[in-house]
Amino acid sequence: MIYAMSDLHGCYDKYIKMLEKIKLNDGDTLYILGDIVDRGDGGIIILQDMMSRKNVVAIKGNHDYMAWLLLKNIDDIENNERLSEMFRLWLFDGGMPTYETFVALSADEQKSILSYMNSFLIYDEVNAGGNRFFLSHTVPEKERMLQFEKLLWQEFIVGEPEYDKQYFDDKYIITGHTPTGFIDQNFTGKIYKANNHIAIDCGAVFEKPLGCICLDTLEEFYVE
Ligand SMILES: [Mn+2]
């Protein structure tokens, strides 16, 4: 089976509970659609768990990118005005627990975390259960997305989807990034499905459930 979850934001306990709930085994593939770190304090330990598994595919979110960029340049922040401003904004936007956990690691552990984060995909496409799926942290508006192969990677980590428009007739788009309650109040804490768009950030770090979807069956799983 193929599964997808997103926006773990350091919620290590919910992540582990979900792996147990879906009984993830070596024959399954789990996509994690970004924003693994920041806000919650378990981001680094989730990354270390993901790295230890061969069947987890990581896709890059805006928080993962910012954390990687700043932690990679940690020694230069003080003397670089642009980096210090980004660093200040990142800490304010949930980066503090990620920063504190990271600096407590050994140099080797830091190096392997950074190289793992740098390996994240921007998007992927996969077939399951007779359907085709496009997976990324987010997508830009429909007009741009119709030529997605030509777009810059940034569009897939900070783009703003038009959830009210059906982008493709022959495939589903699965994204995180925007808590589903902000897309439509009726989907607060639930996976959003409409217009061939499946949005799976239920807001786990904001005291909502962590959601996970099975691509083969479209079955939804939740843990509190
Ligand atoms: Mn995001």
Q: What order do the helices and strands come in, and which of them pair?
A:
Layout: E1 2-5, H1 12-21, E2 29-32, H2 43-51, E3 56-58, H3 62-72, H4 81-103, H5 107-118, E4 123-128, E5 131-136, H6 142-145, H7 155-158, E6 172-175, H8 180-183, E7 192-194, E8 197-199, E9 210-214, E10 220-223
Parallel strand pairs: 1-2, 2-3, 5-6, 6-8
Antiparallel strand pairs: 1-9, 4-5, 7-8, 9-10
Report the average pLDDT across residues.
Answer: 98
CATH superfamily: Metallo-dependent phosphatases
Given the C-alpha coordinates, what overall shape results?
globular
* CATH domain class name: Alpha Beta
Report how far apart the termini are: 23 Å
Radius of gyration: 17 Å
Helix and strand succession?
A: EHEHEHHHEEHHEHEEEE
Largest beta-sheet characterization: 5 strands, mixed
Count of distinct strands: 10
CATH fold-level assignment: Purple Acid Phosphatase, chain A, domain 2
CATH architecture term:
4-Layer Sandwich
Poorly predicted runs: none
How many helices? The count is: 8
Please state roughly what percent of the residues sit in beta strands, choosing from under 5%, 5-15%, 15-25%, 25-35%, 35-45% or over 45%. 15-25%
Work out the helicity level: 25-40%
Number of domains: 1
Query: Which ions, cofactors or small ligands are bound in this entry?
Result: manganese (II) ion
